[in-house]
Predict the structure.
Amino acid sequence: MAIQAWLPIEGGDAAGALRKFLAGLLSAGYVDALLVPCRLVGEEAVTPALVESPEALEACEPLAPVMSHNMAVMAGRLTVMDTGRRVGVWLRPCELRALIELTKLHQATLDHVLTIGVDCLGTYEVADYAAMVRAGKQPAELWRGAADGEAVPADGYVLRSACRMCEYPTAASADIRIGLLGLDFPRQVLVESEEPLPVELPPAEVPARRQEVLERVRARRTAERDAAFAAWRAEVPDLRRLAERFATCIRCHNCMVACPICYCKECIFRTPTFDHEPEQYFRWAERRGVLRMPTDTLLFHITRLNHMATSCVGCGLCESACPSHLPVATLFRSVAQSVQALFNYEAGRSLKDELPLATFREDELTDLGK
Amino acid sequence: MADFEPRIVAFLCNWCTYTAADLAGTSRLQYPPNVRVIRLMCTGALDPVYVSKALLEGADGVLIGGCHPGDCHYQSGNYKARRRIAILHTILAQLGFDPQRVWLRWISASEGQRFADTVTEMVEHLRRLGPNPMRELPMS
Ligand code: SF4
Ligand code: SF4
Ligand code: SF4
Ligand code: FES
């Protein structure tokens, strides 16, 4: 490892120190711009923002525990064509993993990107975050538990369910990694980088405790995940039960729009493919006596699974976007787990692993096709 | 379930299994009439959405017939199809729907008999499984 350093922190203001660090990268010309979470319109919302001037980083909220969008999608918008600019992108672990998948899907490139990966303790729903701010609470107080890796949400609030069962507390493959867990937060913030940095930082000796805490976080969340999957599989043992569980799906397609992986510029369910001649609907209704409309709701979910489960990173944004509060992410993650295991693939693990749907081996799956 | 006649939707590659089905017909080979055939240019062109659609609308089985490994007219369409079907199988199994209602078979243009045998075998298999449980849903 090339560099391990401490960020100088004044008055326990870790977020301020991170802003200063980011400003340093920008002023030194190490990057031309930064894509970071900012509070730009009102106090209640933190969203991705493209920052060109170091002063504008005042609005940057590096530690706000909220994820309005998956940053990977914004990074794709900026990098899918070469602009000659180098952009630093602030990424939570699931955002970095989504960006790796999008790169392999040719919807982003990492050629001119500096990935800055940050430890994650979890995020609140956007509406909960806003409500907390309105109620005068400090959502970022979640980080009080950083030293022990304990995410203790504010009274009356919970973290998003995808976060509670996320086994990836660190963005291990980022160019620059910001360590917050298992350290003396907020007095210690760790910076790791493979490349020399343009800012002088005191070298750090990483305490062994950090690894222990990270292991504990992984174990706890993995257990939470396994329990959630087991409960889900027991609750929905077959397709009929799935149809019933998803009966309140209003087919808004929010889950698809919010998903960083759903890659089609035009989803097949937004095309006329499954619009039929009026006559056809009447024939179906005649045959069965009744026809539920709109048709094909279960087909929509099953198709989305077929198309993107190989790359699902478990960010949970599908579920956060669902107006009917359906457990979309639990469905997708639990299925994705088996689909990815089939090809020994782990979405977001590495740029080098080929997308399962973009490759094949002649000698595999031989008992399937006979 | 003596009176249960399974319904099979077959997606057949133009360059091989579709021709085999044709050959089975013109050679007057005996096979059950339970199949509705949809012709494809290659199994690699089959999006799982259409297989799922057939199943969700009550087809008791789906047969996908393509060129033998190494013989795909477009080099590797059948290998890619095999991955897609493996994924579909995994998803169906996860969702508690018997993936063995979906068969992938390699049947070349000259294998009319093999096509007839496959259909016969699949019909028997589906008879044992019984009707597709999704059949009674008012379209999901
Ligand atoms: S399906 Fe849901 S959990 Fe998976 S990547 Fe898409 S939004 Fe994230
Ligand atoms: S559901 Fe399928 S077609 Fe629709 S956007 Fe996702 S991947 Fe594309
Ligand atoms: S967001 Fe929820 S209601 Fe909307 S289509 Fe997805 S599952 Fe259905
Ligand atoms: S051409 Fe027959 S499977 Fe590809």
About this structure: The CA atoms of residues 76 and 110 of chain A lie 9 Å apart. Strands of chain A lie at 3-6, 33-38, 47-51, 87-91, 113-118, 176-179, 190-193. The mean pLDDT of chain A is 96. The pocket of FE2/S2 (inorganic) cluster (ligand 4) is lined by residues B 13, 15-16, 42-44, 66-67, 72-74, 77-78 (CB under 6 Å).
